[in-house]
Specification:
By secondary structure, the protein is of the alpha+beta class. It is built from 13 helices and 8 strands. The chain binds glutamine. Glutamine binds next to loops. This is Glutaminase.
C-alpha cells in the first residue's frame, strides 16, 4: 500500500505549501475570512485503521460543500433514490457552485445535481425531522458516526455568519419553492443548511469519513455498515463527476480520485479499498478549490499512481 511514511507526507506538504500565496480565502461568508491563508494540513486514514498526518493538523475547519455528499447519503437512506432524484438531477453543470442561471433555462426547473448549491438546498430540504433542530441533530449524529468522533460539532459563529449573508442561496430557495422542488419555510431551510455547512472537524476526521466511502459505506473502525453499498457508490460517482465544482473534469484527468471540496478549503478524497484523505488549505484557486490542497493531491496521485482510471 502506498504512502506509509509520515516523512513522505511532510515533504509533500512542504512542496504544496509553496502555492498558498497564489490563492485567496473565501470571505463572502465573513467568518471564513478569518482563516490563515498559509495553513495546509493532510491526513490519510488507511482501511486497516492506521493513519498519518502532516502540516497544521490541529486546525479545525467547517465542511461547507463537503457536507453535500453526506446530506445526500442521509436523504437517500431516508427516502430512496426515486424520491430524491425526482427533485434533483444527476448531471454536471460546468457552472460555478452558486450559479442560478440553469434553473430558469431548464424545464422542469429541477437543479442539475446535488453538489451545486441549488441541488444541495433541495437535498437538505428532504432531511427528516419535526423541526430544524431535529434535522440538524440527525445529520450531525450521522456525521459523528462516520467520523467515529463525538467531538464533531456545528461552529455556531460560522453558521450565523452565513445565515446573515446568504442572499443568493435564499433567492434560489424561493425560486425552487415556486417550482415545487422544495417545500416548507425557507428561513428554516436556511437555518438547517447553514448549520450543515458549518459542521466542523479536523483533517483526520475527514480522512476517516473518506475511508468509510473507500470501503463502500462500511466503517473500518466500528465494522458498522453506515451507508448501504449502492448509496456509497452513488455518492462516490457524484464526487467524480461534480465534486470539484466546474473543475471536476480537469481534476478527474489530472488526479483521478473521487473527491469533494468546500469553500473553507477542505477536501475529502478517497482511494477505493485503500484509504481516505482529509485536507485543509483555506487559500482557494479561482474555481473555489483549495489551491495547495489540489497541488498536494496532484503530487500524491502522481507519486503513488492513485488515479482510478
Ligand atoms: N462551495 C461551497 O463550499 C459553498 C458552501 C457555502 N455554505 C455556500 O452555500 O455558499
Amino acid at each position: 500500500m502506498p504512502c506509509r511514511h509520515e516523512s513522505e507526507l511532510i515533504q509533500l506538504v512542504e512542496e504544496a505549501k509553496k502555492v498558498t500565496g497564489e490563492g485567496k480565502i473565501a470571505d463572502y461568508i465573513p467568518a471564513l475570512g478569518k482563516a490563515d491563508p498559509d495553513d495546509l494540513s493532510v491526513a490519510i486514514y488507511h482501511i486497516d485503521n492506521t493513519c498519518m498526518a502532516a502540516g497544521d493538523i490541529e486546525k479545525k475547519f467547517t465542511l461547507q460543500s463537503i457536507s453535500k455528499v453526506l446530506s445526500l447519503a442521509l436523504v437517500l437512506i431516508d427516502h430512496g433514490e426515486e424520491y430524491v432524484f425526482d427533485k434533483v438531477g444527476m448531471e454536471p453543470t460546468g457552472d460555478p457552485f452558486n450559479s442560478i442561471v440553469k434553473l430558469e433555462l431548464l424545464n422542469p426547473s429541477k437543479p442539475l445535481n446535488p453538489m451545486i448549491n441549488a441541488g444541495a438546498l433541495a437535498v437538505t430540504n428532504m432531511i427528516k425531522g419535526q423541526n430544524s433542530e431535529e434535522k440538524v441533530s440527525r445529520l450531525l449524529s450521522f456525521i459523528r458516526d462516520l467520523a467515529n468522533s463525538p467531538n464533531v460539532a456545528v461552529c455556531e459563529e460560522t453558521a450565523r455568519s452565513e445565515f446573515e449573508t446568504a442572499w443568493l442561496n435564499r433567492s434560489m430557495c424561493y425560486f425552487l419553492k415556486q417550482h415545487s422542488i422544495i417545500e416548507g419555510d425557507v428561513e428554516e431551510l436556511m437555518d438547517v443548511y447553514t448549520k450543515q455547512c458549518s459542521i466542523e472537524m479536523h483533517s483526520l476526521d475527514l480522512a476517516k469519513i473518506g475511508a468509510v466511502l473507500a470501503m463502500d459505506g462500511l466503517h473500518p473502525e466500528t465494522g458498522r455498515q453506515l451507508i448501504p453499498k449502492d448509496i456509497a457508490r452513488l455518492c462516490k460517482t457524484f464526487m467524480v463527476t461534480c465534486g470539484m465544482y466546474n473543475a471536476s473534469g480537469e481534476f478527474a484527468i489530472k488526479i483521478g480520485i473521487p473527491a469533494k471540496s468546500g469553500v473553507s478549503g477542505g477536501i475529502i478524497g478517497l482511494v477505493p479499498n485503500g484509504f481516505g484523505i482529509g485536507i485543509f488549505g483555506p487559500s482557494l484557486n479561482n474555481k473555489g478549490n483549495s489551491i495547495a490542497g489540489i497541488k498536494l493531491l496532484e503530487l500524491l496521485s502522481k507519486k503513488y499512481s492513485l488515479s482510478i482510471f
